[in-house]
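Box 3.1 A note on notation
Throughout this textbook, protein chains are presented in two layers. The first layer is the amino acid sequence; the second is a token string describing backbone geometry. Keep the layers aligned when reading.
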Amino acid sequence: MLQSAQKRLLLLLRNNTTATFGIGSSSSTTRHHIFTRADKFLVTRQRQEISALYHHILAHHATPSTTSRLSLCHSGHLFSAFHHTTSTSSIVTTIRTRTATGTETRTTTGTGTKRAFATATATATMNGEAAGTKRKEPPHHHHSHLDGGRLPKHHRPNGGGGELSTGVSTNDNTPDTTVLQDELSEDDGGGYEDDDSRIAGGVQQSAAVAVGLPPVVTGGGPDTAEWQATIESVVRNVVSIRFCQTCSFDTDPALTSEATGFVVDAERGYILTNRHVVGAGPFWGYCVFDNHEEVDAYPVYRDPVHDFGILKFDPKAIKYMPVAALPLRPDLAKVGVEIRVVGNDAGEKLSILSGVISRLDRNAPEYGEGYSDFNTSYYQASAAASGGSSGSPVVDIDGFAVALQAGGRADGASTDYFLPLDRPLRALKCLQEGKPITRGDIQCQFILKPFDECRRLGLTPEWEKQTRKAFPKEVNMLVAEIILPDGPSHKKVEEGDVLIKVNGEMLTNFVRLDDIMDSNVGNTVKLLLLRGGEEVEVEIEVGDLHKITPDRFVTVSGGSFHNLSYQQARLYGVACKGVYVCEAGGSFKLDNAENGWLVQTVDHKKTPDLDSFVEVMKTIPDKARVVVTYKHLRDLHTLHTTIIYVDRHWAKKMKLAVRNDTTGLWDFSDLADALPPVPPVVRKASFIQLEHTSHPAVADLVRSFVHVQCTMPLKLDGFPKNRKWGMGLVIDAEKGLVVISRAIVPYDLCDISITIADSFAVEGKVVFLHPLQNYAIIQYDPKLVDAPVLSARLSTEQITQGASTYFIGYNRIGRIVHAATTVTEIFAVTIPANSGAPRYRAVNVDAITVDTSLSGQCGSGVLVAQDGTVQALWLTYLGERSPTSHRDEEYHLGLATPTLLPVVQQIQQGISPKLRVLSVEFRAIQMSQARLMGVSEEWIHKVSEANTAHHQLFMVTKRTFERNEEAGADALLEGDILLTLNGKLLTRISELDVMYSHEFLDAVVVRECKEVTLKLPTVAADDVETDRAITFCGAIIHRPHHAVRQQISKLFSEVYVSARTRGSPAYQYGLAPTNFITHVNGKPTPDLETFLKAVVAIPDNTYFRLKAVTFDSVPWVVTMKKNEHYFPTMEIIKDSSEECGWRRVTYEGGKVIEGEGPDGVMPVANDENTEEMEVDGGGVC
């Protein structure tokens, strides 16, 4: 009868409605999800019939213990939910919210981007994922492989792709799993049926109301008076937590996020939340109560292992509502208990999600890389919580907290994982009584395994009988899973050992095991184990968990380091020792920016721990090059070796940061001043011989190439990288002049290292940056070089299309390649502007292409004539960001050498070039276009005679905004076609070079089909480059650079946000790159001087208002809170008297400090693959 009703209902829905109908129970494996294709509304009679069928199916399908659920919603809304949300569980939440409130559907952020009718493989999440974090899961791990929802150890990937994904749900729907599979298949009848292994159906009586079905109340529904009273009481205790992890530490990156917590001691001001919210180190944040009162909060305790932490706030700061504590009652958690999760779900405040506890003995969820809980059991329920609900109280109908919301599946199933409150309650009592919270461990991870599996591991019938008799309700025993090398359990406990007794007491659960370990720190415990059926008794000393959980880190040369934590050691199954790189930046940006490196030696000295690492680094002078060896936690078999350049001048101080749980801050102190650099000495070198070339002059050109590496300590001008390398061409060996692409050396706030003959390195400096033509000239001290460096001879004649030439280039791994080739094309380069973050690009310059595949492989090189004369440079041109790959495009093109000669000659004479430019961008147009735009036949004829290779003219496509442009002066306008400059017909872009040396140019243009004669003023290019920057609240601010003025028609102010640091106030409050700041607290800030004066006057830890305008001319206001402890206001000013060419002034605590201040974290300058100039870290926990 039930099947007949279901089939009839399927038929009605398929033919007459656009609805989704789901039937199921939280414990049943049977689900029916029907997706219909018709786009019609239910008619009254069919609605009545469906309502009757609905009740019939419900009566036969639901039981009080399984809380049957029926949801019916319009597919138009469903498809919208699929489009705007990122997990199937979020879809259910979205529909429920809409139907319950009668308002627009709420879009929620879930965990793993999905298109309609696709879902990810089984994963789980701490109710969301940190922005930018991605983890893949092996494609064939299904539920049958899980033990309590946990993959067997040998199936868990060593580096990330576990069953679950950690952290916080993104604000931008960043996927945390990329393994997708089709969700739906079409049945014979033409309908769609969903596979239960991929979607757990959702319940919501309000969804039924949305289409006119009678409401269904299962058990004690949310509309009962008792539940309403409970919820009204609970919400007053629940807070929304908004916070910044200001710097990377242990498993946590620097990030900005939000989560939930609840008051557990109203008198002392304690809030309970998750450990993955609190983090391994202090955070900077605040809590918002239900009445929207805000109060600062900071962590006073985070458990080293379990997923809970405690925050402290000032209860007196809450003035408009009574603050009450939510009682913790771990004893009330039972299977079948109906619960509510009250919290900040998906970043919304406030959500109330319902469910029923279905099990109490689930193993702790594994979240892949990063933080994971272990050595505890978890509760499981179906509540469909998502990002932001981490730390929510799980309450029963009497208003007691019975568990702590911690995580959930990320594959769309509405399965949630709750932390038992036994250990949080103990920690809270210790804090209340002023006692230390002792935590013991033997560096062995246990997991729960059922009796049948324990039998296979060696559980004897006798011990099974005793265990079942002692614990008649238990079905699991504790089994050793991971034993860390060199730990207390090493060589005493083995994987697969079944734990029988501890100190003579039989136990089968983690609560009692924790009790024993925590009360025996420093003592010895006796363990009785079964190993393959044999009894083994061992004595193990219990270690202090706090001692193997780092509470400090050291920053030096742009990197951050601490001792390897127990969390990381347990994750990878390695010994808990070694120096861990928690921020791989600056000099210690090793193979890539990812974390997980263990430093083995520095400068040929071993660094087994943080103290020895510090002592070694104290002895290394600034600008030294030293050998570093390191391993990755995922592969300790492989030893990596690299040479680093030690930077102790941009970041002079070696700082120690120590976690202070009383104040909730990192306490900074200086460890050592930088040693001065060792004076360089003259070194000898010889160059390689280029073989298999028929022209000796071409082969000799090898002696003109040098390797150039440029490192930028601070991101300016929208440039997306902080480290670049390429090959430079020596154009004057006597003076040490080298020409290089501006895609390698974008600005002069940098360190330049020039390697001669692949033998030794010398320091370089920037001499000249061309504003338009994509090259820079740098210089080294030739007195330090004893090598046959050859000055390249630059051709004075333009190379032509079809000409034979010789290509010499350096490929991506720095190897020289060469081939004879021909010039295929010479054209005016038109590199697209990057709208997301304007940065330098070449304009108004000719580019050359050649007929060899090597040209696409090489970003550096030359085109050479047979006599060895360099006809063109082969350069890398930085392009736009790809909207699909989100990576920066790079173009490899040639630049004819005659263009360089006027500048090179001035520099060789000791003259600083003073260029002038026309503030416009041109593009070539053909005669067919020019004729339609008003160019006369006479001019077209002149063009055909002047340039037989290319019949073209140039049209103004974009004007560059100039600050001091005089009103009424002659100027080029967009759409003008340029005919002549100073009487010379312009048919080649290189003929524009006349502008560089003239204050005024006589021009003839075609404007609106008429010829117009103009006297064009050129603009001095003296102030094109950035020479001053301010870091404020984590934002890097300077005058709008040239690329901004090229792309915008109006400057809203001279205060431009170029980049921002992750985990900063700028990130938290949304002050984004490309914003212009126009006012601070209502006062205009037209320039950097007024801005600096206004922000320095703002007291620390207070709110202020910024008025800003987006790049698209949209004004907006943001309120921010100043934080001088971590992000002091700092000014970086170009100063030729300084050794590195720039000086730093810090404004902190009302004082002006020359150089670095005592506090603060160095702005992170990692490479970007995001559209904005920043490092990802936003989200909700």
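The first strand starts at residue 19 and ends at 24. Confidence is low (pLDDT under 50) at residues 12-48, 58-124, 127-222, 1165-1180.
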